[in-house]
Design brief:
The protein is mostly helical and 165 residues long. Helix content is 48%, strand content 6%. It contains 5 helices and 2 strands, in the order αββαααα.
Length: 165
């Protein structure tokens, strides 16, 4: 038998390199300011449109017709929000209960039925054409238009409570 191979001599742990940490004030923001500002404008325009739809007369669900308080309804986009030409168009927004909202999002035929009931067939087709081929509205323009509508309808108090004006 051969002699066992001796174990290597332990030299100790390797010295660790220190990783330089950036100070908080030198950290770079990941999102440029222009993008953050646009996102804030989009959120504000969405909130203003939502306020206008919630306080639309008559106070009832556009799908089932039940009376609804402004706090118990959701605004539903008849044409999806990604079509920026009609995203903040009030004709594109329906007032629906939360359970009706889920049904409209699942069923395209039901969504179209509600849209035709609200707008009429020609109005629905016109809105779809604008959504598909129209020029997208800038969030700043939508905010200006929606704020004027809030003031015209006398919803200043509700808008101030939500911090929208």
């Amino acid at each position: 038998m051969s002699a066992p191979i001796p174990k290597p001599v332990k030299r100790g742990p390797k010295p660790r390199r220190r990783i330089a940490r950036r100070s908080a004030k030198n950290r770079r923001r990941r999102t440029p300011a222009a993008i953050r500002e646009r996102k804030a404008q989009v959120r504000l325009a969405d909130a203003l449109a939502s306020l206008l739809v919630r306080y639309r007369e008559p106070y009832q669900c556009d799908r089932c017709g039940l009376t609804a308080l402004p706090s118990s309804v959701d605004p539903h986009h008849l044409i999806v929000r990604s079509h920026h030409a009609v995203r903040w168009d009030l004709r594109n927004l329906a007032r629906v209960h939360r359970r009706c909202h889920d049904a409209l999002q699942r069923d395209k035929v039901e969504n179209e039925r509600v849209a035709i009931a609200l707008l009429g067939f020609k109005g629905w087709i016109d809105l779809r054409v604008i959504g598909s081929f129209g020029r997208p509205e800038r969030p700043a323009d939508a905010i200006e238009r929606l704020r004027a509508e809030v003031l015209a309808r006398g919803l200043e108090r509700e808008a101030h409570e939500l911090g929208l004006l």
